[in-house]
Design brief:
alpha+beta; five-stranded antiparallel beta sheet; five-stranded mixed beta sheet; 34 strands; about 35% helix; about 25% strand
């Protein structure tokens, strides 16, 4: 013990003796650093494309004369992406081939980076260089198989301040380690810096030491959420990893209480259209509390022209620009719904209170009043600030029962005031859907399933999501209002955030065409370079009654571009519309709130030049942020579906299921079961043999000729369900 103390004292004294030297270290002069930058670039240019060893380059530059200036110059050039470092060698970066970007998402064995123009590039896992979300990187494009931009990271210019991963504590030959879906292999844990953990815990880890690959990172455990067999725990960890805000700050809550406490006053309604005597009502899910859209309808008996009113909560009246509420809404971008949980964009005082169109209560709206021809064409549209009083909180299931004449007397009585309007809306919906079909808009089916949870929040079942008649009514009305909002902006040439869906990449359409030919044995006549929405519509309509329709639906979905938000009116391929925006959900989507704010100013008399000056840059920022937060929300919701499905399947391990092969990859078959869960039948779990694979189409046993093909029905056994990853393993029955 004495020896240890003496040694500690000597270290302390040594440290104290060295301290003054650090204090008097010379500051690097900019001109000296710049001189070394020029030398480094000159020698690397002379080496052409060859690399120069670090020591050799330092000698060439006479770094000993001023080591600090030389090292500062190297660091600057690396950060700027002018030079690259690889295995203790330097080389000059080819600026024409490379570009700067930011790592924006990681998922499994791949990731995405976004360049300075806002374009996202897919990066295969082996080209990520251990990059974490938020890193500034240097990358170059590589050949893409999908048609979408792909790249490899060639240098990490600047590491993010806080790199976090969620995962599970697992036992290895080296002791307890951290396993994340990103790294793919267990990572070492610095247990001295970590919060307590044990095998099987779902945790959040922070990267404290980096390697050149994700598997080489070292982490510390910062949060422990409990058993990884709980889907609820797994989602809490993922939410923390994605840094999604759950709680509202005190300033935001204070403002929410303040604006909601006042209620709707006579002053608020003075200059608004008064629709309180109109038959207006909402239609939502039974448990919905944030009701932001209501509808009304009438028809001229002489002309047959319909007047459709879509009345949307005037959230922009309460959420003012640059306020704490607005800043928080912008940061969140969207409400996130998963399982039986919601992470709202706005505090409940607004989302469930003053902004929700509750029945029997005066509410402020931004209303779209549209004239629609007897054939279903949009003839005229007018937007106005209004006040409404909803007659009834309609529920999808109950409205469907009214429409198919199966409703009980109690339900009939509840909807007595709106029954006529409901049937008239159903009639109008037929006209609107017919026009949509004539435009050639493809009707893709949802591949999502509803989760059935018990009182403890555990998944006890899965069921397909079926769209009833009233769901289609609401969809048709909202589509009409969204189109009108975009038309208003285009016509008057003021800025807006548009919902855009670009044409699919020709490479993806070519792959789809080839797979369709193999699956259906029919030739597709359209040109992948000039595909139209009507071509996609025809594919789906021809296959809708076939057993392999789910496969074609999934293949078509994968071929489509991803819808996003943009300040440019690029059109919507999936709806076959030139003008489209999101206007109808400002309680839960920031782009809708942006659209409301701009239209509101336009209605107040703002001219085009003023609107451009005020909103041009804002619409760019809002569109980008809205796209980013939507991607994050969709990612979380899909992962939740997978985790909860695996939680359900844990109690069904060993059971036999019927399914259909919906995807063929190099390492196996993805199978969608009749209960809507999806699992993997790995190629290693197929019967003994020599297997050949045509990715996307089949896996064949070369010895026996047995073939497992896309679209085939198959009987399988569930062998494992891992809640943390959401993976379900299958074997042949």
């Amino acid at each position: 013990m004495a020896r240890h103390n003496a040694k500690h004292e000597r270290r302390k004294q040594s440290t104290e003796r060295k301290a003054p030297a650090r204090k008097i270290a010379k500051a690097v002069k900019p001109e000296e650093q710049a001189q070394y930058c020029r030398k480094i670039k000159t020698f690397l240019q002379m080496a052409a494309r060859k690399q120069i060893n670090q020591k050799e380059l330092a000698q060439k530059c006479h770094s000993r004369r001023n080591p600090s200036a030389y090292q500062s110059a190297v660091a600057q050039l690396l950060k700027e992406g002018v030079i690259l470092e690889s295995r203790q060698n330097y080389k000059l970066c080819n600026q024409e081939e490379s570009f700067k970007a930011e790592t924006v998402r990681l998922a499994g064995n791949f990731g995405f980076i976004r360049d300075e123009n806002g374009t996202e590039h897919f990066v295969p896992g082996k080209y990520l260089l251990g990059s974490m979300t938020g890193d500034k990187v240097l990358a170059r494009s590589i050949v893409s198989r999908s048609g979408s931009p792909e790249a490899e990271i060639i240098s990490i210019l600047e590491e993010t301040a806080q790199a976090r991963l969620s995962g599970v504590i697992v036992a290895t030959e080296y002791g307890l380690c951290f396993l994340s879906g990103v790294a793919g292999t267990p990572l070492h844990i610095d247990y001295h810096q970590s919060t307590p953990y044990k095998i099987g815990d779902k945790v959040l880890a922070e990267v404290i030491s980096r390697g050149s690959r994700h598997m080489e990172h070292v982490v510390k455990i910062v949060l422990n959420f409990g058993s990884s067999d709980s889907a609820e725990n797994c989602m809490k960890a993922r939410i923390a990893e994605l840094d999604i805000p759950v709680e509202f700050t005190e300033s935001v809550k204070k403002e929410a209480f303040k604006v909601s406490a006042v209620g709707v006053t006579e002053f608020d309604v003075q200059d608004r259209q008064d629709f309180r005597k109109e038959v207006i009502f909402t239609i939502d899910g039974a448990h919905t509390k944030d009701m932001d859209d209501a509808v009304s309808v009438s028809r001229n008996p002489e002309t047959g022209i319909y007047t459709l009113g879509v009345h949307i909560a005037d959230v922009s009246h309460y959420v003012r620009p640059n306020s704490p509420l607005d800043g928080e809404a912008f940061r969140r971008g969207t409400s996130i719904y998963y399982a039986n949980e919601v992470i709202p964009m706005l505090p409940k005082q607004l989302s469930n209170g003053i902004c929700s169109l509750n029945p029997g209560e005066n509410r402020l709206t931004l209303s779209a009043v549209m004239k629609i021809s007897p054939e279903g064409d949009l003839l005229e549209y007018e937007f106005c600030k209004a006040v409404i009083c909803s007659r009834v909180k309609g529920v999808y299931d109950e409205c469907n029962q009214i429409l198919d004449n199966t409703a009980s007397p109690e339900i009939q009585e509840k909807y007595a005031d709106v029954r006529e309007s409901l049937f008239l809306l159903s009639e109008l919906t037929d006209k609107l859907e017919h026009v949509r079909q004539l435009r050639g808009a493809p009707e893709l089916e949802s591949t999502e399933s509803a989760l059935i949870l018990d009182e403890n929040g555990q998944c006890i079942g899965l069921s397909p999501i079926n769209r009833g008649r009233s769901e289609r009514i609401v969809e048709a009305c909202m589509l009409c209002a969204n189109e009108a909002a975009a038309k208003l902006a285009r016509k008057n040439q003021f800025p807006l955030v548009y919902r855009v869906h670009e044409s699919p990449a020709p490479e993806r359409i070519a792959n789809l065409k080839e797979l369709l030919h193999k699956l259906t044995q029919t030739e597709q006549l359209w040109n992948p370079e000039e595909v139209e929405p009507a071509d996609i519509q025809k594919i789906l309509n021809n296959a809708r009654e076939e057993i392999y329709f789910p496969v074609i639906n999934a293949m078509t979905l994968r071929a489509m571009a991803k819808a996003k938000y943009s300040e440019k009116p690029l059109g919507h391929f999936g709806l076959a519309l030139a003008d489209y925006a999101h206007f109808t959900s400002p309680i839960r989507r920031y782009p809708d709130l942006t659209v409301h704010r701009i239209i509101s100013d336009f209605l107040d008399g703002a001219d085009r030049n003023w609107l451009i000056k005020r909103y041009q840059k804002f619409t760019e920022n809002s569109a980008q942020r809205s796209s980013d937060t939507e991607i994050r929300a969709v990612q979380l919701e899909r992962e939740a579906d997978a985790c909860y499905a695996a939680e359900y399947m844990q109690s069904h391990v060993g059971e036999v299921f019927h399914g259909i092969i919906t995807s063929v990859v190099e390492f196996g078959l993805y199978i969608t079961l009749d209960n809507m869960a999806e699992g993997l039948l790995h190629i290693h779990d197929l019967p003994d043999g020599e297997y050949e694979t045509e990715e996307g189409w089949y896996i064949r046993n070369a010895l026996t000729g047995t073939e497992y093909k896309l679209g085939d029905e198959i009987e399988v056994i569930c062998t494992k369900a891992d809640v943390s990853s959401g993976h379900i393993d299958l074997a042949l029955s």
